[in-house]
Amino acid sequence: MRSSEAAKATNPASLQARSSSHHGNRVPAQTYDPRPTNPGASPLDDFPERWESYGSMSLSSPLAVEASGLVKTFGDVRAVDGVDLAVRSGSVYGVLGPNGAGKTTTIRMLATLLRPDAGSGQVLGHDIVREADAVRGLVSLTGQMASVDEDLTGRENLILLARLLGLRRADAKARAAELLEAFDLDDAATRLVKNYSGGMRRRLDIAASLVVTPELLFLDEPTTGLDPRSRNQVWDIVRSLAAAGTTILLCTQYLDEADQLADGIAVIDHGRVIAEGTPAQLKASVGGGALHVRLLDPDQRPEAERMLAEELGAVHRESDPAALSAQCADADRAAEAVAELARAGVPIAEFSLGQPSLDEVFLALTGSRAQDETVETEVTA
After folding, report:
1. What is the C-alpha separation between 48 and 56, in angstroms, rounded?
2. In the chain, which ranges are E strands?
3. Which residues have CB under 8 Å from 281's CB, separation 6+?
């Protein structure tokens, strides 16, 4: 995917249940030309300025999302148990939590795909129950699973969605062509989606979400299945949209993704918000500094873990199979621990002493690691 061309396209118009739920009073988007006005520049360079000609968010409230005491039950399971959220307009707000914590259920309520059993919520100044149609006309959501039709080609999927959103036939074809090129799918445009790889399907699903630009964008696990290069490009697009004034509510299990993108983070566990703050504030909440070590040989991690535990106490395994970390505010103790590894013949690729990682924060708050989770599965009645 070419992030420089895809910046124009970050508009998940595909609410997870792609039916009439996303066909609200949204005005069909004008086509955004991904090519920069300055031929020598990257298309992302002038994206915020050029965005203004296509409309920007104008809200009387400084908050794009306000939720108070949201509750949702499925049978005997209380999936969401009194969630409060306040998301500032124009920000990227991350929602983190263990598997089954209630993240996706919360997002689906805010996107009007589920009706809350108790509590209240406003999105872009509209009540999510009484004014659900108005909310649907202003927001978009890209869900965890691909929602494209496997029996259509990539081009047919995009044209179909564009037509459903009100674009004329010629405009729909032009928009589809732009999106296919931006996401490096133009060579596969005429192939049936059922013959796409997993990564290609995910890219097409994201592209299908970008036909029209929303004022508030819900992203539920947006980079699942993407390779590292494409993942970084999606991050660039999210940053560009936020810089242009779009509010983004990001639900992710990738801690580095939230660390890179989010201005604020809410950690949800057992249906409740148990911590909230900026990434720096959350890291500071678990204590002092931490020693981060990455080994040359991942097979030696068990031995290194044992030795660091003897020197520093509790050791955390990072998502990188060659990485370890341990809380340590004393630089001399950290240096001695690293030296002990070297003397024992455990080669180190790199090490650093700094703040705890967001992964350590997550573990301290919830008792589990996000990287060990599977995608949240919603309980249904």
Report:
1. 10
2. 63-74, 77-88, 92-96, 118-123, 126-127, 139-142, 216-220, 247-251, 264-269, 272-277, 290-295, 316-317, 323-327, 348-354
3. none
Residues 6+ apart with CB under 8 A from 353: 289, 290, 291, 292, 328, 331, 334
**Mean pLDDT in residue range 47-65:** 48
φ/ψ of 373, rounded to 5, equals -85, 160
CA distance 149 to 362: 36
The CATH class for the domain spanning 3-61+126-265 reads alpha beta
State yes or no: pLDDT of 15 exceeds 70: no
Residue 361, amino acid: V
pTM over 0.70: no
User: What is the third-level CATH fold of 289-354?
Assistant: Alpha-Beta Plaits (3.30.70)
Each residue's pLDDT tens digit, 165-197: 899 999 999 999 998 987 789 999 999 999 998
| pLDDT for 120 beyond 80 | yes
CATH 3.40.50.300 domain locations along the chain? 3-61+126-265
How high is the pLDDT of residue 144? 73
With CA atoms as reference, report the closest residue to 294 among 317, 311, 328, 268.
317
